[in-house]
Amino acid sequence: MGLATPRRFGNAVRRNRFRRLTREAFRSMQAVLGGVDVFVAPRRGLDAPTLEGIRRDLAEAPAKAFAPRPRGGGSRT
User: Fold this and answer.
1) Of 6, 13, 38, 77, which one has the greatest count of Cβ atoms within 10 A?
2) Residue 40 — φ and ψ, nearest 5°?
3) The whole model's pTM is what?
4) Which 3-state string (H, E, C) describes the chain?
5) Conformation bin of residue 10: beta by default, left when phi > 0, alpha when psi is -120 to 50
């Protein structure tokens, strides 16, 4: 598991809490995830991360990673 918590996410207390919760969620989900490599970074707008919320996101991550992406027909600028 790779873990990145940039300074813009918040102060040291907030970043460390996110790291602790993510590590604990990953430990408890290792059997479910199998041999998948995971890189975790908080998204903007994440108010208060919870252990249950991070577990849910980790459980959904493999399905999202291998899902086909829609091709946008928009213009590139």
Assistant:
1) 38
2) -120, 130
3) 0.77
4) CEECCCHHHCCHHHHHHHHHHHHHHHHHHHHHHCCCCCEECCCCCCCCCCHHHHHHHHHHHHHHHCCCCCCCCCCCC
5) left
Query: Strands 39-40, 2-3: parallel, antiparallel or unpaired by DSSP?
Result: parallel
The pLDDT assigned to 33 comes to 82
Please state, in angstroms and rounded to a whole number, the distance separating the CA atoms of residues 1 and 23: 9
The string of pLDDT tens digits covering residues 25-42 is 999 988 888 887 888 999
Question: Is the pLDDT score of 50 beyond 90?
Answer: yes
Name the residue ranges covered by the structural domains of the chain.
2-64
Kindly report the number of other CB atoms within 10 A of residue 33's CB atom: 15
Token pair in block for residue 22: 């993510």
- Sole residue written with tokens 């907030």: 14
